Amino acid sequence: MKKSGTRDIHQRIYDFVMRVLKLLKQLPKTPENLIIINQIARSVTSMGGK
After folding, report:
1. Rounded to whole angstroms, how far apart are CA atoms 29 and 46?
2. Of 12, 5, 17, nearest to 47 (Cα)?
3. 19: burial class by Cβ within 10 Å (0-12, 13-18, 19+)?
4. What pLDDT score does 8 carry?
5. For the chain, domain boundaries
6. What is the pLDDT of residues 1-50, one digit of tens each?
7. Cβ atoms < 10 Å from Cβ of 40
8. How far is residue 34 from each of residues 3, 16, 41, measured CA to CA in Å?
């Protein structure tokens, strides 16, 4: 794979992670939602770390 292709996927992952985190900020912070919000945030940020 070309180096630019690798860079592209990293940028796409970063963009996805940022979009999800922005979406999570907009959700109501009810006790039920907080559990789901925390899990999604952990999941999506671990994707960016790989």
Report:
1. 22
2. 17
3. exposed
4. 87
5. 3-48
6. 455 666 788 899 999 999 999 999 999 999 999 999 999 999 998 975 65
7. 15
8. 39, 20, 10
3-state secondary structure the chain: CCHHHHHHHHHHHHHHHHHHHHHHHHCCCCHHHHHHHHHHHHHHHHHHCC
User: How far is residue 7's CA from residue 17's CA, in Å, rounded to a whole number?
Assistant: 15
The pair of structure tokens assigned to 24 is 């999570």
Structure tokens at 28: 């109501």
Prediction pTM value: 0.77
Q: What pLDDT sits at residue 18? A: 95
